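Re: Re: token formats

Sure, here are both.
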Amino acid sequence: MCNELHRVCNSLHTSSVALEHALLVALSERPAAGLELARRFDRSIGFFWSATHQQIYKVLRRMESDGLVTAEAIEQTGRPEKREYTVTDLGRQELGAWIATTTPRAGFRSEIAVKMRAASYGDRAALLANIRELIDDHRTRLAHYDGMAARDYPDTSTLSGQELDTYLVLRGGILQETFWIAWLTEYLEAHGVSRLPSLAPQPAAEHPLAPQPAAEHPLAPQPAAEHPLAPRPATETS
């Protein structure tokens, strides 16, 4: 078993390591057939480690060949049988060994950040429009994460173990989307774009750290009619 684990580890660490391990995590949480696993992956781990369904199926076959997972044929009424994958002892050893390895600091590569720095040399208006679209995308994902947190973890004080780990990873997604919204909004406002409408607006109150529209800022100018010294309409005088 040790020799087999060593062989598999060497094979994984010289190829596409992360997807195999991501699938081992997903299958450790719950055994699944290929299609179910791919769909579940899209809704969970896929938010921070993306893979196409074709890649997942290909890697699953390789993992079965390497002995990391086993597949059981399960009959279905009125449908072809499905193959349900389960993590083997060797797969659990490989996952444990991988978790114990040191992860280097993730590099940060952002095309939009390079474009923001270079905006003076090109079409800034087009870039600002692109940034508005990105903010809308991040707001949509943030709303999705917030909805998941409210639905799945209404009382975080009772969480422990694997449930707590899953929740904290979700919190990481929430904080990351909050960062992108705040930073990109700051860039727009610094260039005088303060109230561009969102393509799919999310109420700012839905998230405590979501950026506020400029008119809601405490120092933003108020409409004249609301100023204490502004003249009142004639219909309001006695």
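Second one below.
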Amino acid sequence: MTGGAAVLLLLCLSWALHDNRWHAADRSDRQQVIDRIFGGAATFDPNAADILVAAGSEGDDLDWKTLSHVKLDETKGLAVSPHFKPDVLARAGKSAIITGYMFPLQGMEGQSHFLLSAYPPSCPYCLPGGPTEMIDVKAHEKIEFTNSPITLQGTLQVLQNSAETEDGFIYRLEDAGKAAK
């Protein structure tokens, strides 16, 4: 992840991490905040049906609801400790087709490293979702930025240890490219 994307994530989450009530709260209260921010405890946004219509495609073999099948525990910094359900772990290292919205990390020219999200970006300074609603994408060739949903195909990596999740992401799509229609 680029330094700029990490700064964005820090800015968007700083209210929870630096609020005096955060430090005074016991662990269960902090975990509730983490679950609310990151969609933990195998929950998904109640508006998911609307999002899936906008971000999904009939040709997808992976959907955003499946990616929410994870419980996230707090660790130090932005790293999370994910506990994936078996249906998610079964996808690790396999080809996946998914539709979402681009969140550029490298300016507006062709993108070879960007985020794919269930949500359309609504603020240039805020990430459009938590770790269960975003995928870190490494494309094999540059892809032109679009505000419309884009369908990608690549190898899904399920990131499981704190060294891999230190940027706050738990999914990566490697060797990605536009999926054939």
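The radius of gyration is 16 Å. Residues 5-25, 39-54 have pLDDT under 50 and may be disordered.
- S.
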